Amino acid sequence: TKMIRKAFNAALEAHKDMRRKSGEPYIYHPIAVARIAAEEIGLGPTSLVSALLHDTVEDTDMTLDDIENMFGKDVVKIIDGLTKIEDIFEQTSSLQAENFRKMLLTLSDDVRVILIKLADRLHNMRTLEIMRRDKQLKIASETLFLYAPLAHRLGLYAIKSELEDLSLKFKETDVYT
Fold first, then answer.
1. I need a surface site. Which of 58, 114, 115, 134 has the fewest CB within 10 A?
2. Are 139 and 123 in contact (CB under 8 A)?
């Protein structure tokens, strides 16, 4: 509990001046990702700490060294894995979905990285309405072809179904309705 509270306070401080496109405080996103990780996936304290801090290295002045000093090697390993996945995703948009999924699974030596990434994507999909239409279509397509099948492979059927439903909502609104 102390470590999770410490991570919450660190994330709150790191994101204090940031807002999401919806205008809400940015800290709501890491909190939501941590809740999904805990309640819907069943991850433990180290994962919750990592979920709360998952965007700090990319979006704030916090470094991996800062995180390691405050939270240890396990947390920094997970956050570093999340950062690498994001970097690779940006560079490999032309890869076929199946190859990308295989690469994700072999890239990460800790499955918690993938699980937190799925929680992150699920929250982003739940709050996609605020994005421009072209972004909605791009993110929904990525979700449908990459993240939903990945959730299925990992046995997260409820998350897989919700990702598919939300993708359909934005890609084919009439069919979804």
1. 134
2. no
End-to-end C-alpha distance for the chain, whole angstroms: 42
Euclidean distance between CA atoms 24 and 35, whole angstroms = 17
Q: Are 119 and 36 in contact (CB under 8 A)?
A: yes
**CA–CA gap between residue 15 and residue 44 (Å, rounded):** 23
3-state helix, strand, coil in the chain (%, to 5): 75, 0, 20
Distance CA 31, CA 120 (A): 10
Annotated catalytic residues are 58-59
Taking only the tens place, the pLDDT of each residue in 55-70 is: 999 899 999 999 999 9
31-36, long-range: CB < 8 A, 24+ apart? 32/123, 32/126, 33/116, 33/119, 33/120, 33/123, 34/119, 36/119, 36/122, 36/123
The pTM assigned to this predicted structure is: 0.88
